[in-house]
Specification:
Elements: E1 8-14, E2 23-30, E3 38-47, H1 50-57, E4 97-105, E5 117-120, E6 123-124, E7 137-138, E8 150-154, E9 158-160, H2 167-170, H3 174-186, E10 194-197, H4 203-214, E11 218-223, H5 228-232, E12 238-241, H6 247-255, E13 260-265, H7 272-277, E14 279-287, H8 300-305, E15 309-312, H9 319-329, E16 337-342, H10 346-355, E17 361-365
Parallel strand pairs: 10-11, 10-13, 11-12, 13-14, 14-15, 16-17
Antiparallel strand pairs: 1-2, 3-4, 3-8, 3-17, 4-5, 5-9, 6-7
Helix pairs in contact: 3-4
The structure holds NADP nicotinamide-adenine-dinucleotide phosphate.
């Protein structure tokens, strides 16, 4: 298994902030060499995600107030960084949701991992201080990721998984489902809760539906009008068109009451005041994204007079990934694979991802 590893590989390399021209396909990029504690992985599939789009376009810059469009922010500079605020070091291979086979191990790593199909946990940690969020990084942001034929990562981040799902199906899970489960944990969602989910057709939103259902909560999904049937099939109690003029009355029509216990939000934007207004007294708002716009109108009176609790959700504790593996192996969650593309067609794949006519996630495959 370790004998036939080439010296060079196909890889898509981000060369700076900007448009698609900054994402360059190479046929002769060096294959990484695993260092002590690391493993080398032959990548079978890698899911797309908005962190890649946002980092490329410099959306995380404090100079940007707009929704994610994938268009380059004019005037973006090197210090306009990644999700974590630090600047990006170029060239960078993006791609967080890699699935593949371990083909070589560095010093100190058990050889029993060689030949195992694994999902990569994207969270880079100081493994002597794994709960310290200040020391967290992300695969494909603070180190090279999975838009390549081979990648390397700490052995602590690879998880063998016992399932008949395809590589591409497995590559839909990691980022979205860990984020969604972390949101539900942060909001302490139980089977007594009704949860309103935004961006429900997307990766995190559809994960939120499945994972909230898994713990017995009732879900109400907000999505674009054309996607209602597909989102309904994921299993929420009700689906509401996000263009509804009055969210409270739309909720009343859908579930017989105009408030919910929890809002799990990845969209923000203009609808945000109505989301907060839909929370019952003592309700919880948890947020992991702002694809519809990061700057919102916040009436502090609603927050304190209703005794609301707000949680942000980005860096999860390590156990969340292990929980996810269990849900996959026990068939408690199902993949929503919208399309696969060859890695060489990453521009086309990412444009489809930005266009958002799909439900679930899109995946690229580096060996075709
Ligand atoms: N904090 C973290 O660690 C973390 C992890 C993953 C993702 N995120 C963030 O969470 C957000 C959602 O991620 P995702 O992977 O679920 O995204 P996604 O798969 O692209 O789905 C986002 C969904 O949001 C809805 N939407 C509503 N308004 C939109 C607008 N103005 N532009 C685009 N889409 C809009 C769309 O669904 P409808 O049309 O059906 O409404 C879309 O399918 C992103 O901002 C992402 O960066 C954060």
């Amino acid at each position: 298994m370790t004998d036939n590893i080439p010296k060079t590989m196909h890889a898509v390399v981000l060369t700076g902030h900007g448009g698609f021209d900054k994402l360059k396909f190479h046929r002769d990029w060096p294959v990484p060499v695993p260092e002590s504690g690391e493993v080398l992985i032959r990548v079978a599939a890698c899911g797309l995600n908005n962190t890649d789009v946002n980092t490329r376009s410099a959306w995380y810059s404090k100079g940007n107030n707009d929704a994610t469009t994938g268009d380059a922010l004019v005037g973006a500079e090197g210090e306009d960084g990644t999700w974590g605020g630090a600047s990006v070091s170029f060239p960078r291979i993006q791609g967080a949701d890699a699935v593949g086979t371990v083909i070589r191990v560095g010093d100190g790593v058990t050889h029993s991992l060689i030949g195992r199909r694994v999902i990569i946990d994207g969270w880079l940690r100081d493994w002597n201080d794994p709960l310290n969020r200040e020391k967290a990084g992300y695969f494909g942001s603070e180190c090279d990721g999975g838009y390549a034929q081979y990648t390397k990562v700490s052995h602590q981040q690879v998880h063998p998984v016992d399932t008949t799902m395809s590589d591409a199906e497995l590559a839909t899970f990691a980022c979205s489902y860990v984020t969604a489960e972390n949101m539900l944990n942060r909001a302490a969602v139980t089977d007594e809760d009704t949860v309103l989910i935004t961006g429900a057709s997307g990766g995190v939103g559809s994960a939120l539906i499945q994972l909230a259902n898994r713990r017995g909560a009732k879900c109400v999904a907000l999505c674009g009008a054309g996607k209602a049937d597909a989102v309904k099939a994921v299993g929420p109690l009700a689906v509401i068109d996000r263009a509804s003029a009055n969210l409270g009355s739309a909720l009343h029509d859908a579930i017989g009451k105009d408030s919910v216990d929890v809002v799990a939000d990845v969209v923000g934007g203009v609808l945000w005041p109505q989301l907060i207004n839909a929370l019952t007294r003592g309700g919880r708002y948890t947020c992991a994204g702002a694809i519809g716009g990061p700057i919102v109108e916040f009436d502090l009176r609603t927050f304190y007079l209703r005794d609301l609790t707000f949680t942000g959700a980005t860096v999860p504790p390590p156990g969340v990934f292990q929980d996810l593996i269990g849900y996959i192996e026990r068939d408690q969650i199902q993949p929503l694979l919208a399309a696969t593309y060859p890695l060489e067609e990453l521009h086309t794949a990412q444009q489809a991802f930005i266009d958002k006519r799909h439900v679930g996630n899109i995946v690229v495959k580096p060996f075709v």
